[in-house]
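Revision sheet: structure tokens.
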Amino acid sequence: MPSKGITNTTRDNQTYEGYLTEPEGDGKVPGILLIPAIFGTDDEMKELADAWAADGFVVSVPDIFWRVMPGPTADIEKAFGRYNAFDVEQGYKDVEDLLSDLRANPRCNGKVAVLGYCFGGRYAQYAAARLGADAAGAFHGTLIESELNPLPPKSCPISFHFGAEDQVIPMETVEQIQAAFAGHDHADIAAHDGAGHNFSMPTKDGYHAGVAATSRQAVLEAFNALK
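Predicted:
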């Protein structure tokens, strides 16, 4: 997939790095704004983004933690440290700017989904509910339950996936999210037996190849509605 490092610019003209990958060819396709896990935009996130690009999307992966500690990290203490120091309200503004930038990308057809891995789940939900994102997906997305009012429009495809044995996101939380979306026409809020946290991330403890494939296919089908 054609890919490159990019520079993102905020509404205040501050700049930070990102990664952009797109399918072969020059036709217009939907966009995916991919908000990574607490480890940041590491090689794993870039490979996952490339796979989404191969499915026919232009994918932007921002260095979302740039204001706290830029760059990827494999150090779990540093990762949680910057997660705890992250300014949520500022993060919402950055996501809003990133959505606008991706919509304006020459390859984008004007429709953008937001996809969250772990940390990114909250921002996928917020973007669909409040920022006009055209679809949202998440794998073991945290703190989605904190953004259930308002819900995204009932026409907005939603595909959130959790592990039934996830110690980070208990089933009570998953059930709360499922109940909130019970009347939503295009929402799939799934709990997968045998899976814990990080089931979608091949290099992390907890990876579950079967659940990763099943849940990814469901998100892909939701996002394909934007084509």
